[in-house]
Structures
1.
Amino acid sequence: MVSLLGISGSLRASSFNTALLRAAQPLAGDSARLDAATLHGIPLYDGDLEQREGTPAAVRTLKEQILASDGLLLVSPEYNNGVPGVFKNAVDWLSRPTPGLPDVFRERPVAVIGASPGGFGTILSQAHWLPVLRTLGTHTWQGGRLMVSRASSVFGEDGTLQDDKVRQQLGEFVQGFAAFVAGTKRG
């Protein structure tokens, strides 16, 4: 079984991206499991803090979750036509060396999806992730794209996915990514 970890790049309780991640979990298929992680508790990156106290507990926990997975799904909002600061900050922390833990990004299969209330989905945010993921040495999946636009019409007030077409696209994306991960799975 392929183990995927999804991270929502939003801290909001009623985030469209957290809702998208929750909707993706049961759609992973019989040969994959998609778990969800959070960015809550990760402080702003500060080299002095890192030198003084080491890796914060929330960062170490997230690193361990990533290391326990076979592939990483970034569920990214788009803020001001780019990557959200809170998400990039977490990736910056995650990319730092942690005693006793290997690099969490090098050669790791990664995919990016996202939802936005705007009409263009998260196309610019996803494009901004590409040089970051390349720099980190990830094995970025290029086999599919999912940018949910006008998310307020796709999700109900309770955060459930209401749109059958988006549900189908999401299932195809997650299962395609899981198949990619299975094909690149480390021994």
Note: Strands lie at 2-8, 32-37, 71-75, 109-115, 139-140, 147-148.
2.
Amino acid sequence: MDVLTGSISTYVFTMLHGQPRFLVLLRAPGLIHANTWQAVHGMIDEGEKAYDAAWRETVEETGLGPERFFKTDYIEVFYSEFTDAVHLVPAFAAFVTGAPGVTLSEEHTAYEWCSLDDACERFEFPSQRNAIQTIAVATQGWPAVSAGLSEITGMFQT
């Protein structure tokens, strides 16, 4: 069994009435984890930095350009039976204003803007729930953020 790196997750959020709302994406039929609610997830291209991949995948999968971008202190760790490997996936957070419409990629068939509790109910994997809980705690003093998020807006290439 291998340990794999090379992918990222990005949790897109907005703030409504002082509370975070998370974008959840329904995975398309015929793909791994079809018909499950997901965050933005994708592969890091050769020579690409993880935060650049996170920004790129966010734009590709949602059509949204984040206003603020953060690395989280959370690393998703899970075993996949599809790869027979343990995956280590850095989690990022992307802030957008309001709850804008999303332009879905072919990887997804629907989207919703959800409260923390609703997103936690929809996400199948504990690592996804843990990531958004980290973001929710860190944004309690929004627009300031606390431990758990570090702003990296401007570090990536667009």
Note: The chain has three helices and nine strands.
